[in-house]
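User: quick one, fold this
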Amino acid sequence: MVTLTERAAEHVLTLMREDPEALALRVAVQGGGCSGLQYALGFDGEPQPGDEVADLHGVKVVVDRFSLPYLSGAEVDFVDGLMGQGFTVNNPNAVASCGCGSSFKAEGDEAEAAVAAGGCNTCSA
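Assistant:
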């Protein structure tokens, strides 16, 4: 399952207070990005059948069964630095990633990179 740092949980809870329909943080993986897979974070209502659910620092975190193998052991954090601020995913399953960290390739994943050497449209790698 995915973990959530206390700092990330604080930011999620602040954002959830602004959206009364946000009952859970959904962490998922979608096809796309220059490395083949990309992370998706968003708010959701109730969990769907087959979802894994955990309560982490007061945040209900939901992961669908397709995404779970790609995210097992991953940690969602919130960083604030010179290059900007935002949520990041530290994923032990990623064997390669985009320069901006928004997409990754997992071991055994046969997805071809959209841009072999030039990075993606969202970063300058």
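User: anything notable?
Assistant: The helical segments are 6-17, 68-71.
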